[in-house]
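Here is one chain, start to finish.
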Amino acid sequence: MAIHHGHFPRGFPEFRDEPPTSDLTVDIYSDDNAYFMNSDWKRTPKPSGRNWLGLPISVLQEDITWEMVLGSRGRSGEQWSIWEAVYGPVGEDGYAAPIWDRVTGEIDREVAEYWKENYDLRHILERDWDTLGPKLVGKLRIYIGDMDNWYLNNAVYLMEDFLENTQDPHYGGLVEYGDRYEHCWSGDHKEPLEIQRLTVYQRFFPQFAQHLLRTAPAGADLSSWRY
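Its structure:
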């Protein structure tokens, strides 16, 4: 929301970054197949989930097969079907166009290009930084565990590489990683996930308040809400 509507919010923390560039363990722009590693000699399945030690708990083809059982034409109501419905165009059959063939794993480059131009956050920022950058200075704060269960930290590495090299203006935000923390880490380096998710408001509202004070327009009420 901050990226698509940069003029509206005063700032956002993001606890899991999901731009389509690195869709878990798949690079939809350069990989040959969604289900298997690129190789001339073997077919190694791509993992889709892991635990905090990095041990795989599922492979991508299993996930898609499960969703196919739950509902045809991308109607499983699960994660992959949801992403296709949100990020992708409408297919010829009136349903969301799949990003790859669900049986073979062959990636649809035309659909991937649509994802890129409309929902790949890193690409959109890079493409439109001249206009988006001034609206987003100081607003982008990304937190993620480096052992995210679904490998979402891979996408954050790409986002961070772009953000840290922005100029005119520099993004002025934050990208922070939690060592061996799993999905939905929210910036607390001491408490487990089941505890820190209960303290998000207590930890981030003071930061929001300071950001409002720094960026408030002239004449804004800076006192009645501080008590």
